[in-house]
Design brief:
The complex is a heterodimer. Chain A has a 7-stranded mixed sheet with strand order 2-1-3-4-8-7-9, with helices on both faces. A two-stranded antiparallel sheet of chain A has the order 5-6. The relative contact order of chain A is 0.14. In chain A, helix 7 links the parallel strand 7 and strand 8. Chain A starts with about 30 loop residues before the first helix and ends with a helix. Chain A is built from 10 helices and 9 strands. By secondary structure, chain A is an alpha/beta fold. The radius of gyration of chain A is 18 Å and the shape is globular. Chain B starts with a strand and ends with a helix. By secondary structure, chain B is an alpha/beta fold. Chain B is globular and about 70 Å long. Chain B has 2 domains: about 230 residues, 3-Layer(aba) Sandwich (Rossmann fold), CATH 3.40.50; about 130 residues, Rossmann fold, CATH 3.40.50.920. In chain B, the strands form 3 sheets. Chain B has a 7-stranded mixed sheet with strand order 3-2-4-5-7-6-13, sandwiched between helices. Chain B has a 5-stranded mixed sheet with strand order 10-12-11-14-15, with helices on both faces. The chains are: A alpha/beta, B alpha/beta. At the A-B interface, strand 1, strand 2, helix 2 and helix 4 of A face helix 3, helix 4 and strand 9 of B.
Chain lengths: ~260, ~375
């Protein structure tokens, strides 16, 4: 039997900043993609040992179990305040919060707006999946008009439940914000664009240009009652029209940065 | 160092600075605002961190974050603000972090008013936040004691990885007294083996208050309770006045205790053998000392600026060893020495009868309820 020479080429590996553990996320959920993108950026910038992460309450409550750098766990909505405390006493460390939409845009709206307005030099990764994932899919501030959830069983009625909040647009109006962008994780092209935005957010922090936030449109197949594939399609067809992708605030000092 | 005339709030702020305070996060609320204002100038002048938060929720969580790094941190507030902070107090306690909190109490409940009160006793001493946790609670009765307790509070917090609350009332925050300040320490940024300040050169760490596995949660609960047992053994503080030959005693903390001392002196002048027991550590509470005292007394009068919150702890500690009466003022009103003196006379001349709760007897005696 002829032997065949096989040359191995590593094309995909776990980032150093991610621990080699299984996550608790549901199949098809894009939290895993978001975690990986953040970890890749941290690896590429070589800042793993300079990082302090702040986990929030929601599906990402256990983020500290997945990242291989120092982490703390905040009360519901308070991650930006905790991050502020850390950054103010450790101004040369990189501080990141990782928050969902219930955490950031509902119970933690006060903390996030105040942190952005102060130009707090932290980076926020904001996962928008239009519902409270961890508690089983209740209506969030980001739930789309007419969208059914376990607490809006007939679809979100804007007459009684009001309208969704476009967080990126709102925070971009604040002078303290250095970089605010919305990206989506529904296909490879957008995943690559999301990674670039995350990099720019951390570069903003590195240069001391103020508050940075990347809103990531994400899937929640379990609570949406959709297959992973259908969930990705729903992001494109239902979410993006309401939550347009784009850069809402780019500090001039990073405008021309190539990443 | 010579004595100088200092306002309570400012004295507490400067004592914290001299204790090596690295970062302060606060929110304006009367009657503690001067503390925040003072530190807004003092901390930056020393190159240390001062930040006025967006709310008490923001402030306590900034303190939470900063404490995770090993920095010496403090915040301050007054009653309604502390209510908002109780969420963070529970989390910080669960995460086992050293933090100093100053509560300059005002009249309540609700928005109440801005006058001095001791209405936060239960909220601070017996929890307020969710779950089983304990804070060390220290109650000064004058500006010098406020300085000394604040100066020592950080070491105490770090020794046990716990919250230390300086529980003062509005009058202590607002009044001026001659007092001496302690020596100045540089800003303290420790790197204890649990802190999260960036993992350079070591394994990464995380700090969390979540134990999703109940067996691990219970283990953490036992750890906190075990630590509290050590604190109870080692950190009881109290002051005694004229108790050596006393047949009666007044028990009061903070400003109520201080005012009661005037009444005790007046009663002594009339020949009544009475003294004052003033708990300084409200948690841990001086249970054994009060029990021993009660065994040799003919009666005890508890005086507070609330409706009898510490009274229940005194009753619990003394276990019916002596009859107890209670006198309280509420709503932000200080008890007058003459009022306490009249209560002492009542205790001395009218034997306590019946099994009513001392609080009920006080309310009946007050003539102010229908």
């Amino acid at each position: 039997m002829d032997s065949i020479q096989v040359e191995e080429q590593l094309v995909y590996d776990r980032p150093n900043s991610l621990l080699d553990v299984q996550t608790h996320y549901c199949p098809g959920c894009t939290h895993g993609v978001a975690h990986r993108l953040v970890a890749e950026v941290i690896d590429e910038m070589g800042i793993k040992e300079n990082m302090v992460g702040v986990a929030s309450v929601g599906c990402s409550v256990f983020a500290y179990n997945y990242y291989d750098f120092d982490f703390v766990q905040a009360p519901h909505g308070r991650a930006p305040a905790m991050a502020t405390g850390i950054k103010r006493v450790l101004p040369h460390r990189f501080v990141m919060t990782y928050q969902g939409d219930g955490d950031l845009a509902s119970i933690g709206m006060g903390e996030i707006v105040a942190a952005a307005a102060r130009g707090e030099n932290i980076t926020v990764i904001f996962i928008n999946n239009t519902n409270y994932g961890m508690t089983g899919g209740q209506m969030a501030p980001t739930t789309l008009p007419g969208q059914k959830t376990t607490s809006s069983p007939n679809g979100r009625d804007v007459e009684t439940a009001g309208y969704p909040i476009r967080t990126a647009e709102m925070l971009a109006t604040l002078d303290g914000a250095g970089y605010v962008a919305r990206r989506s994780l529904h296909n490879p092209k957008n995943v690559r664009m999301a990674k670039k935005a995350i990099r720019l957010a951390f570069e903003t922090q590195k240069k001391g240009l103020g508050f940075s936030l990347v809103e990531l449109l994400s899937t929640c197949p379990t609570n949406w009652g959709l297959s992973p594939l259908k969930a990705l399609e729903w992001v494109e067809n239902a979410m993006i029209p309401y939550y347009p992708l784009g850069d809402y605030k780019v500090h001039p000092a990073i405008k021309d940065l190539k990443v | 160092m010579a004595k100088q005339l200092l306002k309570g709030n400012i004295a507490i702020g400067e004592a914290a600075v001299r204790a090596g305070l690295n970062a302060y996060f606060g929110y304006p609320i009367t009657p503690q605002t001067e503390l925040l204002e003072y530190l807004s100038a003092r901390m930056p002048e020393l190159g240390r961190t001062f930040l006025q938060a967006e709310s008490e929720l923001g402030a306590i969580n900034m303190v939470y974050g900063a404490a995770c790094t090993g920095a010496r941190v403090m915040n301050s507030s007054s009653s309604p603000g502390v209510s908002l902070m109780t969420e963070g107090i529970s989390y910080i306690s669960a995460t086992e972090l050293p933090v100093v909190i100053v509560d300059v109490m005002r009249g309540g409940p609700g928005l109440g008013n801005i006058a001095p009160s001791q209405g936060d006793y239960n909220q601070i001493v017996h929890g307020g936040g969710h779950g089983d946790y304990h804070c060390i609670v220290l109650a000064p009765a004058n500006v010098q004691e406020a300085i000394d307790l604040t100066y020592g509070a950080f070491d105490l917090a770090e020794k046990y990885r716990t919250i230390v609350v300086i529980l003062a009332d509005g009058s202590l925050g607002q009044m001026m007294e001659p007092a001496e300040l302690p020596p100045m320490l540089p800003a303290i940024m420790r790197q204890p083996d649990w802190a999260t300040y960036g993992s350079e050169g070591r394994e990464r760490r995380f700090l969390s208050s979540i134990f999703i596995d109940p067996t691990q949660q219970e283990e953490a609960n036992f750890r906190l309770e075990g630590r509290w047992q050590k604190i109870k053994e080692n950190e009881i503080q109290f002051r005694e006045y004229y108790l050596d030959d006393a047949e009666y005693a007044v028990v009061g903390f903070g400003t109520a205790g201080r005012i009661a001392l005037s009444a005790v002196r007046a009663a002594r002048a009339k020949g009544i053998k009475i003294g004052l027991f003033r708990p300084v550590s409200l948690a841990p509470f001086p249970d054994a000392q009060l029990f021993a005292l009660a065994k040799r007394l003919k009666g005890m009068l508890v005086v507070e600026m609330n409706a009898g919150q510490m009274l229940n702890d005194v009753m619990n500690a003394t276990r019916h060893q002596t009859p107890i009466e209670f006198f309280g003022r509420m709503g932000g009103i200080l008890p007058m020495p003459e009022e306490i003196e009249a209560e002492i006379d009542h205790l001395f001349t009218q034997p306590i009868g019946g099994n009513d709760h001392p609080c009920d007897r006080w309310l009946k005696r007050s003539g102010r309820i229908n």
